[in-house]
Amino acid sequence: MAAPEAVAGRAVRLGIVAGGGDLPVRLVAACQRQGRPVTVVGLTGSAAPRPDEGIADGWASIGEVGKILALLRAAGCGEVVMAGNVARPDFATLRLDWKGIRLLPRVVAAARKGDDNLLKCLVEVFEEEGFRVTGADQVLDDHLMPAGPLGRLGLTAEVTADLERAIEVVEALGRVDVGQGAVVADGDVLAIEAKEGTDRMLARVAELRAGWERRAGLLLKLPKHQQERRVDMPVIGIATVEGAAAAGLAGIVAAAGATLVMDRAGVAARADALGLFVVGISR
User: Fold this and answer.
1) Running DSSP on this structure, what letter comes out for residue 114?
2) Distance CA 126, CA 247 (A)
3) pLDDT for 67-94, tens place per residue?
């Protein structure tokens, strides 16, 4: 693990703007292992509790931009990471503070151009306010997908054509800022990832393939070429492996060095137990 950046011999305090899911919790744990000071601002309605205290250090709506900035500054944060699941806000009902109101036209204009433009806009706001924005992978570099098999099983000749088709589909999705994943089996595109996320996409495939006995096909996860990876990197975990198994797939393929794997050892063990491959490819 790379040592955190330091000022005057001290580690720079990391501010985590936390949505839901496991990623913010793992970031906190990584900072604790590194001896790095950390402050968590939980996004109301999205964030899970901080494990060491039971609550985040502060809470704010995603529209309360001034409050988020004030909490980070008061804690002395020099670096910020945005992590966790956050649903696109309903701008008509979003709770705003004065800073949020001033930024709203700019944010709405970016959102109309797609999620990636919205994320880039949020990064710009933090940088304009003097914070360095970093990616979760810079803190969790031991969570990156390696090249090659993660468990015992590798790609088979039977899935080569499916992988080529899936790459074609996901790259097309990326060009129109739709999603990061697709499921292909026996040449058929069974699902593409949109707003529902990977777990729900796999659940749809499981319903579609109910009664099938033969494992076939794969889930592919790739970042978009124009994606702001500091705030939106593909993620897989044990639940992804279990969802792929329930969907009757032969395995999962993800971008090496550009996909976060939550609990690599656990993912490898679960994939081996279920007879699936999990493989990283360079793109």
Assistant:
1) -
2) 40
3) 999 999 999 999 999 988 776 777 777 8
